[in-house]
Amino acid sequence: MHKVNVNSVPDSQVKEEGAAGTKIKWLINEKDGAPTFLMRQFTLEANGHTPYHTHDWEHEVYVLDGAGTVRYEDREEAIGPGDAILIPPNQKHQFRASSNRELKFLCIVPK
Fold this sequence. Notes:
By secondary structure, the protein is mainly β. The protein is 0% helix and 53% strand.
């Protein structure tokens, strides 16, 4: 078993091209012995966003706090606490915080 408290994990700035005002915490990863999935927490500052991107793996997102939108291919939907989102593989997507609130969410991806 591995247990970690989110407050003990430092934030790292996301430096991927197209990201702005986005921080990540790796809560569970390979070095913790995770055999299949990795868990991350993202915090987007007000007006912050992830890149509009695609990749070969799915991920599941659970919104913890704040307000924002998810852009998915040609759609955009408001998201907030309690929303769970599945992004299938190879689908363009982006998460964006609202203009006046940060957005905080968990993101789980395959190893």
